[in-house]
Amino acid sequence: MDNYFLTNMASNLKIITIVTFDTTVYDSFAAVFDECLQTYSGSSMVSVQSNSSNQSISPLVYPLGTLPFYPTVQIDGITVMLKQGDITKVGVDAIVNSTNKTMDMNYGASGAILEAAGSSVKNECKMLGSQPHDGVVVTGGGRLQCLYIMHMVGPKTVPFITAAVEKILEKCDQLNIATVAFPAIGTGKTSSYNPIF
């Protein structure tokens, strides 16, 4: 992700949210956020923002786990935040759906996204048809609190995950998206458990 923003300085993207429902996965990602911050700052603190919309946009710094805030890091001016919860309830411009080649995966985060989005999105997916292993396509948001759903055929290795994330970021720029939510990619039934962000 860092390389993408170094070569695309004019990106409209402001906030990337990684959302996971699972506590173990959340804790693993939070540890990665803490390691990331330690690497750049030499401290064991995580840059976090309040989840209240009335708070300042400027990040505050607190020890990980001491306050009810979301772990947050800055990457090339982009806020990357981790939330535990239901990705279908996140209010963003776009939600990423890691799915199968036929875009009809009915379990995990993908199943929850398709069910919550409703039949209009399922119909769009059917019309788009089967996608290549590295495919990324965009549909409307259906009944979700987003304008778009970006469907990517679920990559299973770190190089493929990295390439897929970069394709999603390119689509975000093409559509002038400022906020996007990703599921915890690489942690589902068909993937090995290893946070890459």
TrEMBL record:
Keywords: Glycosyltransferase, NAD, Nucleus, Transferase
Domain Macro: 67-197
One Pfam family recorded for the sequence: Macro
Gene Ontology MF terms in the entry: NAD+ poly-ADP-ribosyltransferase activity; NAD+-protein mono-ADP-ribosyltransferase activity; transcription corepressor activity
Localization annotation: Nucleus
Presence of the UniProt keyword Membrane in the record: no
Keyword Iron in record: no
GO biological process, one term: negative regulation of gene expression
PROSITE patterns found in the cross-reference section: MACRO
Annotated GO CC locations: cytoplasm; nucleus
Name of the protein in its database record: Macro domain-containing protein
